[in-house]
Amino acid sequence: MATLSMTQIRTSNSPSGFSLNCSKKVYERPSRVGFKVFASETQSSSEPDLSVTVNGLHMPNPFVIGSGPPGTNYTVMKRAFDEGWGAVIAKT
């Protein structure tokens, strides 16, 4: 393993062996980042269309609940559609 001694990293004749240059300005990142959102007059106020067609099956959106506890019975699957899911894979 390679090591550096104090004489190898000394860049000036300072007594501690390290050169400190306090005249350089330190870039400080802002504590908060803000985004400005402007509404376009050409854009309609409706939501975007996420509908997809997979192998001839038309879905209102591409979000599908996989097989498992959410696909166990009709009541749970109906609730998933009521909540806005695009499809449910039923448990067999």
From TrEMBL:
Keywords carried by this UniProt record: Oxidoreductase
GO MF term set: dihydropyrimidine dehydrogenase (NADP+) activity; NADP binding; uracil binding
Highest taxon, organism lineage: Eukaryota
Coiled coil: none
Keyword Oxidoreductase among UniProt keywords: yes
GO biological process, one term: thymine catabolic process
Keyword Oxidoreductase: yes
PANTHER family: DIHYDROPYRIMIDINE DEHYDROGENASE [NADP(+)]
Protein name per UniProt: Dihydropyrimidine dehydrogenase
